[in-house]
Write a structure and sequence with these properties.
With 267 residues, this protein is an all-alpha fold. It contains 13 helices and no strands. The N terminus is likely disordered.
Length: 267
Amino acid sequence: MTFKLKTSLTIASAVLLLAACNSNRRARDLAYVERPVEALYNAAAEEIDQRDYVSAIELFNEVERQHPYSEWARRATMMSAYASFRSRRYDDAISTSQRYLSLNPAGQGAAYAYYLIALSYFQQIVDVGRDQKSTENALAALQDVTRRYPDTDYARDAEIKIDMVRDQLAGKEMAIGRWYLRRNQHLAAVNRFKTVIDEYDTTSHTPEALYRMVECYLSLGLFDQAIASASVLGYNYPENEWYKDAYRLLDRQGIGEQARTSTASVE
């Protein structure tokens, strides 16, 4: 080993040791320095103002440790959850909010705690190509907010996000349905598209789902069902491109006029 390499390793070790010492010193400071609760809480709030959320969490936790069962401790719990959310520690934000609710189910911060849980799940939503467990959790949590606190700003924002979440879940069903369709597994595809129509009918995916139903039924030779799906599509979305595409498919099968008549009878 060269002298230069030895020196580099020595410096790196010294840096790590210094960092560990600073961390330990901070832990000792928190552990043994008893401070007035207002000073401790305000110090944590200042860390949030400085966007040092990790330090804020440590200080808020210390408020709880040094002054348990106090009003300051209850506030500190919610602020710790907020700091976790701002630092994108969403699982911590959820667990801390849930801890607040378990101790203060009717507390002043309860509405915000439920809302923060919903936001934390919402921020973890991933693209439709991946597992949608967080999306399902977000939907349940957002609906919980609207059910518990219907006349609040939290509920109004939750309603907007619910529409977005439902669109996401419908998009997942559409992606799976298209996958089945590409593999000529038409019945499996129909089930996915039908889920969109039955459960997510107000989303942006409904016109395409109806078109895909027409496509699947024609492939299966189920012309009556294809006409029925096209009729619903034509009645609800007469200006939509998916409607026009569906009737082009039906025209190629020689049943386009029959479908148009069926649509007119629905009207």
